[in-house]
Amino acid sequence: MALPGTPVIALPAQLPEWAAKAVDLASPRLGAQALFASDAFFAPLERMLDPAPAVFYPGRYDDNGKWMDGWESRRKRHAGHDWALIRLGVRGTIRGFDVDTSHFTGNYPPAASIEACVSASDALDALQAANWSEILPPSALRPNSHHLLESTSREAWTHLRVNIFPDGGIARLRVYGLPVGGLETAGDDLVDLLAMANGGRAVSWNDASFGSAVSNLLLPGRGLSMGDGWETRRRREPGNDWCVLELGAPGIVERIEVDTAFFKGNYPDRCSLQAAFVGGGTDQSITTQSLFWPPLLPEQPLSMDAVHEYGEQVLPLGPISHVRFNIFPDGGVSRLRLWGRVAQ
């Protein structure tokens, strides 16, 4: 039994492939923002986008009542329903959602729906006048549960309207999708071709045992902790760990950064990159091909908690669209940057 005041952390969702291979477009780390809510009396909208799992403090109260880790509106005493407006971190296609009601039991909404639009403005009047499309029809919710729900649209969107019927609380909202664009106006500028904000994505990987998503490698800024990177289990057999990544747009790589921030007793001994321009195929076929791609960066030694920069060591392969990042034999890496120019 937890001691009074001890936070109780919600169990993580068991993600299907469509979510595991996507990124959370509603993460504040990508620039997502909670904009407006019809009501947030018990808990502010910003908490619903917190990247950390929802927690529950048994004895914590504030001036308005029980402290809850999420967005919670007051009990509605008239017709209608509550809603919230969210700006995604980057424009992207949406595969689905995790509508998480962890710790909300007698105060969860019985149902929710989600609409989407494209808007150049975050202003309330502009969003209210926008052309909204329903991408998640009204769906039944349960108390204290993860609800993994697929989107009905594959278009690219910038903003969401979350409707709850009629009121209540949602602990977390994850919006699983893929960033779109970001490099259309790059011209001949030197850019991070692999950045998530520029459309980079994780295609496949052999291991992510510590729950650290491979896509963390593509996030902006340096890692915030050892949990904010990609870390594999301790390898007890021959071989090495790897992941395959797709660039936001084909380009020519000039400089590479490998950041092992916070990884000290568990950073890889060495790393290398292979790369190729891939004209088509499935994620599975691309992964198989990656075994035979030529080297972009030959094996390089790594050190703990440091940014490693490679320029002269980068081999001239011309335009590439995908890379295979190898770490030897195992361990954790915080960020990977591929600085280059978009292929014209």
TrEMBL record:
The keyword Secreted does not apply. Belongs to the allantoicase family. Keywords: Hydrolase, Purine metabolism. GO terms for molecular function: allantoicase activity. This is Probable allantoicase. PANTHER family: ALLANTOICASE, INACTIVE ALLANTOICASE-RELATED. Pfam families: Allantoicase. It catalyses: allantoate + H2O = (S)-ureidoglycolate + urea. Its EC number is 3.5.3.4. GO terms for biological process: allantoin catabolic process; purine nucleobase metabolic process. It comes from Pseudomonas linyingensis.
